[in-house]
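The freezer alarm interrupted the setup, so I double-checked each line after restarting. Inputs confirmed:
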Amino acid sequence: MVKSLNQIRNDFPILDQKVNDEDLVYLDNAATTQKPRAVVEALAHYYYTDNANVHRGVHTLAERATADFEAAREKVRAFINARSTTEVLFTRGTTTSLNWIAASYGEKVIGAGDEIVISYMEHHSNLVPWQQLALRKKATLKYIKMTADGHLDMTDAAEQITDKTKIVAIAQVSNVLGVVNPIKALAKLAHEHGAIMVADGAQSLPNMPVDVQELDCDFLAFSGHKMLGPTGIGVLYGKEAILNEMPPIEFGGEMIDFVDLFQSSWKELPWKFEAGTPDISGAIGLGAAIDYLSAIGMANVQAHEQELVNYVLPKLLAIDDLTVYGPHDPAQHTGVIAFNLNGLHPHDLATGLDMEGVAVRAGHHCAQPLMKYLKVPATARASFYLYNTKADADRLVDAIVATKEFFKHGTV
Amino acid sequence: MALSSLDNLYRQVILDHSAHPHHHGHLQQVTNEIEMRNPTCGDVIQLEVAVFNDKINDIAFSGDGCTISQASASMMTDAVIGNTPAQAEEMVQVFSKMIIGDQPNLDTKILEDASVLNGVAKFPARIKCAALAWKALNNALTSNDGKGKAGQIVEHHDN
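Predicted 3D structure, all chains:
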């Protein structure tokens, strides 16, 4: 990496603290990441020096705020290699982005008997909008099966996606199983049947290089806060030809061209979809997060996480009574690792880890259909990021073993 | 702090109740029943109550959950059986105050074994685990039709 791991950690003041009298080990990055000084300072700088509303003022501050906001859009465009900033819409996050596609594109193209194809490993935000759309339109919601080790079953995908399929919506990286799904191959399959490809990038954008032209997906949704940015800002990428055909979802200020008493016309892309005052500071913060990640290089971020997975996954698999979900080959597993101690509810396990200063998630990870598929009520989940170290991985392993011993030998 | 502090949360009696829960299963005759979920962690409880002559004659629970939620449900059934619904309501109130932990002199004798769950107050993330069974009892006994919200899924977000 350009920066050393120590230098990176120094950029994240929150990591340097004790939790329950132990040095904090933050391994809940799939839920949200911590923020580097550069992002927090970008927010402060905007509010201290440039704050004004965008796209409507004629004064200097309004011009600066608009320039900063649109500069952030260009940073996003370059980060995902979109053809144009007209294809980059700012939203509240992945959930809003996916709901917009369902509410606008889906509402327009889906009819009775049409098919929407998703998978069992989808996060609720890439499942419920399609489920509800299918219910509204009397369309059919279909699920692509998984292989025994948690990969998407591409043989089944080829059977599920048919000429009736209008939308295929799949996560690029699972937020539970840590597998990477072949979006490019799925997009090809979808296009062969005249369907569009929606990629949920919430867990991929933070961790690997993503190129929308290379993937040839029609939509890509992701969140700022899972990639060092602030909460409340996200992105919906869409191919320009498709966005042009889509009606706006919200109406109001900022998005209109002319308003007459009984009819109105809309601004051009991307503003046609951005009604109301946007999250200006959020977009600027996301821009700063992209600058930070780009300086390190996404290939380096991915390589660092892979090194941690190569290190920790065999150690986790060696713990008796610990079940690890998803592929057991580190080369096929991203930095999201879900696991359970046999006989102990993950909530109890997470409390034990918390007492050892190790922050992990426990629960259904907004993936109840996947939990049902795996036949578990919930799991614990550790997720690594660019500031995590092998020492963090050791602390996780030690804390799991200590918690296991605690519950095996009873208490007072 | 480390794991030694967990002793306050996972007392032996709690581990015993969780490993061998009392009144676990289903009743022949049910007057009030409910299913409640804790959507943040996936815990679910089905509670069945048989109230005859203003007395909780029998009670049973089933479902999935962590050590704290299962032990709490087991202790709750021990505590309320044989009592009137009104007394059970009072226990729910005392239990709720106890796990919040802001009343140091609270009298928790009526809760029997369940009073050892007072340690949960120091683990805010786990309060909702302990509370689930008691909220289920409360809703099963007090819904408008007097029969609980049978079959209905009630979600509560309190973290």
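Quick read of the result. The longest strand of chain A covers residues 165-171.
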